[in-house]
Every structure is written in C-alpha cells, then in structure tokens.
C-alpha cells in the first residue's frame, strides 16, 4: 500500500496529503490485483501509523508518508532497478575519484573534496555500483544453470543468448580492470599531494618568531588532516578491492566453466537429467521404516572396495628382567612329615579310644556303680595309655557331676596296678570316687 | 624416475624415500575405499601420481584391485576398484562395502545438487539446503513419504531430528569416501562441501545412467 501511495503521489494522482478514503481505495485496488480479501482500513492505518504514516499537522483526518517510508521505497526501487547496471564502474571512479591538475592546493581543498562528510555519498555510489555488478553475476548464474536443466534442443538455442550474457561479462571484467587502474592512479595522486604537504611542513625553516611558529603549526596540522583523509580513502579502497577481486574471480571461474561446457555440452546436460531421473527412481523404489530405508529388490545396490587395515596396539608390558628372589626355597622334609603324620594318627586313634571308653563308662554308671581306680586300671590294662585313662576319668566325673550322680570321695590313696606310673598314684588317690 | 621400475614384480619403488614416507597413509586410505583428491591431500596425491604405474601394478598383483585415476570438473582423484562386477577374487564380503539404500539416495541427491551448483566454485551444502529440498525440492513428496511415513503440513522437531541424523550418518560415510569435506564441527548444523569425486557415484551407476530410458523401462516392466 505504501508503494502504491508513493507511486500515486509521484505521478500526481494524489496530493502529498491524503485521506482515509484514498487509503481505502488503494487497498481495494491492491486486493483486486492480487485477488485477496479487502483488509480492514482502520487496522492497516493503525499498524502503519508513526513509522510509515503520520497525521497531517494542519489538516485533520489527512495523512502523509513519513521520510522513512519514502526512503524505504526509494531504496527498494534502487535495488530493483539499479541505475548502475548500465553505467561503467570506471566512469564512476573517474567522476568521483580523480584529481585534476592544481585542483588541491590547501588542506581545506582536500577536506572539501575528499573529507569524510563530503565523500560518503561517492563511496555509496561505488558500493551500489558493485552491488549491481554482483546482482548481474547472480542473474547470469541462474541463466547458466537453466542451460543444464534444459532439454538438449532448447539448450542449443540458449547458447546464442548465452553468448550475449558472457559478452557482457567480458565487458564487465574489462571495465573492472580499467576501474582498478583508475583507482591506483587516483591513490598515487592523492599520496603525492599528501607528501607535498609533508614536504612543506618539513622544509619550513625553524620558526623564530611567534608568527613563524603559528605558520609551522598550521602546516603540521594541514599535513595531518591530509594524511588522515588519505588513510581513510585507502582503507575504503581496500574493502572495495576485496569485493572486486571476488567478482572477478567468479567471472573467470564462470567463463572457464563455459568453455569447458561448450566442449561436452550435450553429454553433461544429458547426464544431469539422467541423475535427476535416477534419484527419482531410487526414491520411488525405496521403502522406509522408522530406522531403516530399504530398496525394492530390483533397484541395484552397489559397493566399493573396503579393506581397511587394522592396527592393534599391544597392551602395556614390562620388559625389565625379572628380579631374583631372596627367599630360599626349602626341600620337602619327608622324615618330619612322617613323624607329624604318625603323631596325628596316634592322636586320632587316642581320641577314638577315649570316645569309646566314655560311652562304655557312661553305660556302666547308669547300670552299676564303678570304682574310678579300678575303672582306670581296666583302661590302663587295655590301652596302656595314661592319657586315655585320665581323660576318660575326668570326662566321666564331669558327666556324673552334671547329671546328678552321687559322688563320694574318701581320702585314701590307691595305687593303680600299673607300676610304671608310680608318681601318679598319689594324685589318683585324692580323687578317688565313691561307688554310685 | 618412475620408469626405473618397469617390470611387473619389482616393488623397488617402495624403497624411495618419498614413497616410504607416505606409503602407509596412501595404502590405508586407498584400501578403505577413499577417493584421494588433488585438493584434499595433495602430497599423497602427488606421490601416487608420480609412481602411478608402480602403484597400479602393486595393487594389481598383490590385491587384484585396479588403481583408477579419474578426472571430472577440473579435479582429479585416485581410488581402488574391482575389476569386474562380481568382485573377482574378492567375493569375501569383508573386503567390500555396499552403500545402503539411504546412502544411495543421499548420494544421488548430492550428485544432483552438484550439478545445480555447477557454476559456483564451492558447492557448500548445509542442513537448511537439505531441508529445503525435502520441503520444496523436485521430489518433495517422495522424500517426505520416505522420511516421515505420511504427507503432512508440519512435522515435529523430533521427526526432523531423526531425518537430520540419517543424512548426517550418510554424509559421514561419504566423508570417509572422500566425496564430501565437512565444515564446522559435530555440534554445529550439518555443513559440508561436495567434492567433484561425487562423480564416482555416476560411475558406479554408469550402466543405469548411460541408458536411463532403458533402465526406467526395465524397472517398469518388472513392476508389471
């Protein structure tokens, strides 16, 4: 709508201020062109107000376009119909970046011609110019691509159109080269002028008077201003250089491709179509599940050599010589082992016999009374082992005590019948048990 | 230099200092199926190029594989190939690897993209480009059906993630094959450059591509 209003104002159809009715009409016009519903006028006005539209200060109910809206339209307009497409870059360079003889004689001249504020517009022109070139490149790319998409018969026709595009590219490349030369010359001139200012400053005699000092200071100031301007412009051109180089490279690459393309033009276009078709087929004959896609068995699956070598790293090993052991190993002592085994045998045998006698004793005391001395005698006679007799006797005593047998002890020494155990006789007497 | 070793069974070139230096890398990459392009690994490429005949006989005699030098779109690369479709003596499946269906489809898609960007110097592809192809490309319907099962107006983030993972896996395989070069790291959006060696896929499917009409007819006939 903003565009339409802008156009109507510029053609004189509308005044610079317009009413709600005018806006409504514009909306109807737009909806007719695009076949869409007519939007609500008030809502549109509300959303555009302030940034794009303003109330007219003097005429209530009327609106005017803001500066921002106008510049936006102009900017887009410039983008769409870039006037620099038909202009040569070299001409722009010549027009804005050249120094005529004796044109600059003072720092003020330099400031007015190339100072930051004055030159911004010129810089923008160059930038727009390069943008236009870039756009042209993109358009040409699209055209180039179409050739590959096109059927062979169409493509041959297109080649003639194409040659024209490339001729233009060639001219552009030439123009850019001229522009670069122009730029170099300009920078050289500018450098020379800056150097002159420096020379003026350094060749000024050492000031002795107040007036001389102020003159010298002015020269120094002039030189610094010029040097600053020079540096700024040089920096600007460095960025421009990069852009130009980029465009240039693309031009050369594209022309290389064209030459190559001419050679096997038909084959490549055919291949491109075949690849597209094969991709379509592969998609048509593929079935997808959640994790895997498989081909219908008719679609050929292909492979490649795959025999990667594997390198296994061995684990870490200590390769130091083994340390000698300080422990002296002992040989088997058969004699000792035998002795221990024999002792063990005797122990086991003795335990068995003790158990046997205990069982016998227990049975005996429940049936009839036993005299401990004669019982022990009996054991000694049978086993000839005092340890057995003693252990059995103490076990039986304990058993009798725990189970409430009547134990009577008389203080009489009794000698066991075995003479060899003389010493023990006395002790036995002390624990002489009574009859049960 | 390379003519010094002419006879079939002379592997003396392996003693050359430069060959010794690069042999293990060359051998490893070639046998793993990599396409060794001029731009990616120039030193390795140059060594193979200088001793091409020696290397060719080496792989012919010892592996029964063909060392191929291919050129396409102003770029060259080396790779190993079987001598015939039956893989000759290499019928052992551990010695070759087939492309999965999805890898084949992705490969053909990238090959197609390569042609689309034919006049641009670097054929950079990002996940956004692939997404665009799925949403609006020539075969959007087939792609969406394959990836999401059904055609819908919108797909969930989860579905998109799963789709991206599939492409990422395929691209990873292609990187090992030397068909693409990845840019950026794993955490970033999928971003890679298609190398001209993607043309190998065109050779792998050479029979089909050279007579695509016949192939289409064959597929249709089988269907009927």
Please explain how this structure is put together.
The complex is a heterodimer of chains A (436) and B (224). With 436 residues, chain A is mainly α. Chain A has three domains: 2-77, Arc Repressor Mutant, subunit A; 84-263; 337-430, no CATH class. Helix content of chain A is 67%, strand content 4%. Chain A has helices at 2-11, 20-34, 41-48, 67-80, 89-96, 107-114, 116-149, 152-203, 210-263, 265-284, 334-367, 372-383, 386-402, 424-430, and strands spanning 17-19, 53-55, 62-65, 286-288, 293-295, 303-305. In chain A, a hairpin with a 6-residue loop joins strand 2 (53-55) and strand 3 (62-65). Chain A is elongated. In chain B, helix 5 (127-136) crosses helix 6. Chain B has ten helices and seven strands. The model of chain B is unreliable at 1-6 (pLDDT under 50). Chain B has helices spanning 17-31, 42-50, 52-63, 101-116, 127-136, 140-148, 157-177, 199-204, 206-210, 212-223; strands at residues 36-37, 66-72, 75-81, 96-98, 124-126, 180-182, 191-194. With 224 residues, chain B is of the alpha+beta class. Chain B is 51% helix and 13% strand. Chain B starts with 16 loop residues before the first helix and ends with a helix. Chains A and B meet through helix 7, helix 9, helix 10, strand 4 and strand 5 of A and helix 1, strand 3, strand 4, helix 4 and helix 6 of B. Strand 6 of chain A pairs antiparallel with strand 4 (96-98) of chain B.
């Amino acid at each position: 709508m903003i565009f339409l209003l802008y156009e109507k104002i510029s053609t004189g159809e509308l005044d610079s201020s317009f009413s709600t009715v005018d806006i409504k009409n514009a909306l109807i016009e737009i909806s007719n062109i695009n076949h869409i519903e007519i939007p609500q006028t008030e809502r549109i006005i509300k959303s555009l107000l302030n940034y794009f539209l303003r109330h007219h200060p003097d005429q209530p109910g009327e609106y005017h376009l803001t500066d921002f809206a106008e510049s936006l339209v102009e900017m887009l307009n410039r983008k769409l119909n870039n006037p620099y497409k038909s202009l040569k870059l070299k001409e722009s360079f010549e027009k804005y970046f050249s120094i005529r003889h004796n044109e600059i004689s003072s720092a003020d001249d330099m400031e007015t011609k190339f100072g930051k504020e004055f030159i911004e517009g010129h810089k923008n022109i160059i930038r727009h110019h390069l943008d236009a070139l870039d756009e042209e490149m993109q358009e040409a790319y699209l055209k180039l691509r179409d050739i590959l998409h096109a059927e062979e018969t169409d493509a041959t026709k297109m080649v003639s159109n194409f040659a024209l595009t490339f001729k233009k590219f060639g001219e552009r490349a030439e123009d850019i080269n001229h522009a670069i030369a122009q730029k170099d010359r300009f920078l050289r001139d500018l450098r020379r002028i800056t150097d002159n200012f420096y020379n003026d400053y350094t060749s000024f005699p050492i000031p002795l008077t107040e007036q001389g000092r102020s003159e010298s200071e002015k020269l120094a100031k002039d030189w610094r201003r010029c040097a600053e301007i020079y540096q700024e412009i040089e920096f600007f051109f460095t960025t421009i250089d990069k852009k130009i180089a980029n465009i240039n490279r693309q031009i050369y690459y594209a022309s290389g491709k064209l030459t190559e393309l001419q050679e096997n033009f038909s084959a490549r276009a055919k291949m491109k179509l075949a690849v597209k078709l094969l991709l379509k087929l592969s998609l048509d004959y593929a079935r997808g599940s959640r994790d895997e896609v498989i081909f219908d068995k008719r679609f050929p699956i292909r492979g490649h050599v795959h025999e990667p070598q594997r390198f296994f790293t061995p684990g870490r090993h200590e390769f130091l010589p083994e340390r000698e052991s300080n422990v002296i190993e002992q040989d088997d002592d058969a004699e000792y082992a035998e002795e221990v085994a024999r002792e063990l045998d005797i122990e086991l045998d003795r335990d068995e016999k003790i158990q046997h006698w205990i069982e016998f004793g227990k049975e005996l005391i429940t049936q009839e009374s036993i005299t401990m001395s004669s019982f022990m005698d009996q054991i000694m006679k049978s086993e000839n082992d005092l340890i057995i007799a003693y252990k059995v006797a103490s076990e039986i005593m304990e058993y009798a005590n725990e189970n409430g047998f009547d134990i009577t002890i008389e203080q009489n020494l009794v000698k066991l019948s075995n003479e060899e155990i003389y010493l023990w006789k006395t002790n036995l007497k002390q624990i002489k048990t009574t009859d049960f | 230099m390379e003519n010094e070793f002419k006879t079939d069974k002379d592997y003396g070139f392996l003693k050359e200092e430069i060959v010794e230096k690069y042999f293990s890398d060359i051998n490893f990459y070639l046998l793993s199926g990599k396409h060794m392009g001029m731009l990616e690994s120039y030193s390795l490429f140059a060594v193979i190029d200088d001793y091409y005949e020696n290397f060719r006989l080496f792989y012919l005699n010892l592996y029964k594989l063909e060392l191929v030098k291919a050129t396409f779109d102003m770029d060259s690369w080396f790779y190993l190939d079987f001598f015939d479709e039956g893989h000759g003596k290499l019928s052992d499946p551990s010695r070759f690897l087939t492309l999965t269906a999805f890898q084949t489809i992705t490969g053909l898609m990238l090959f197609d993209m390569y042609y689309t960007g034919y006049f641009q110097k670097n054929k950079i592809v990002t996940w956004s480009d692939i997404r665009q192809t799925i949403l609006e490309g020539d075969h959007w319907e087939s792609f969406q059906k394959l990836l999401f099962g059904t055609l819908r107006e919108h797909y969930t983030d989860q579905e998109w993630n799963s789709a991206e993972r599939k492409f990422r896996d395929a691209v990873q395989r292609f990187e090992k094959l030397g068909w693409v070069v990845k840019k950026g790291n794993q955490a970033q959006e999928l971003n890679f450059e298609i190398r001209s060696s993607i043309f190998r896929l065109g050779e792998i499917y050479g029979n089909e591509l050279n007579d695509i009409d016949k192939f289409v007819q064959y597929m249709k006939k089988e269907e009927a």
